[in-house]
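Regression test case RT-17, inverse folding.

Input:
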């Protein structure tokens, strides 16, 4: 799988070594690390190298891609969406995550990217359930999930550390049958 098209020339495609500079540049935005579960701040070149190497190694070991770069029409990485590292076929579910560079916020790009990834995940990753965790204050991410069909299934109180504080996490889920039944 090399390319999943989105509208207006945006695409999802595998992460590549050439993405290092864009990763480091975009992930200097503090608001991104504050709203994601695992992106460090400051984000360094070694962080980018390690993440890219992990993605490439995982891709070589698995029958399908599990994480994609979100690319602008010129091919530049502007975000990512995926299920991280898990063994395809070993679990009926996986957790998804995503981020988008700040200049592209509030344009519907991530909603479309997550929607496209959800379709891909159910078709190619041998899962029947997708989950996502969102910090309680991250309303934009919750909207993305709801728009593509996820249901908030719970609130995990003081579940994650974020900027030195223990914060609540909203837990979302989506079953493949939800989409099959037309609940998207």
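Golden output:
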């Amino acid at each position: 799988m090399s390319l999943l098209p989105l509208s207006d020339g945006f695409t999802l495609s595998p992460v590549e070594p050439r993405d290092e500079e864009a990763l480091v540049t975009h992930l200097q935005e503090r608001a991104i690390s504050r709203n994601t579960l695992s992106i460090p701040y400051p984000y360094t070149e070694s962080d980018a190298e390690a993440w890219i190497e992990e993605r490439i190694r995982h891709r070589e070991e698995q029958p399908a891609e599990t994480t994609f770069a979100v690319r602008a029409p010129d091919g530049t990485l502007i975000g990512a969406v995926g299920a991280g590292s898990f063994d395809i076929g070993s679990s009926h579910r996986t957790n998804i995550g995503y981020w988008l560079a700040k200049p592209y916020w509030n344009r519907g790009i991530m909603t479309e990217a997550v929607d496209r990834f959800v379709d891909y995940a159910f078709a190619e990753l041998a899962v029947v359930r997708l989950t996502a965790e969102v910090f309680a204050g991250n309303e934009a991410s919750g909207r993305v999930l709801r728009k593509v069909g996820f249901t908030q299934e719970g609130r995990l109180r003081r579940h994650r550390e974020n900027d030195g504080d223990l914060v609540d996490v909203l837990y979302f889920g989506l079953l493949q049958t939800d989409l099959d039944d037309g609940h998207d």
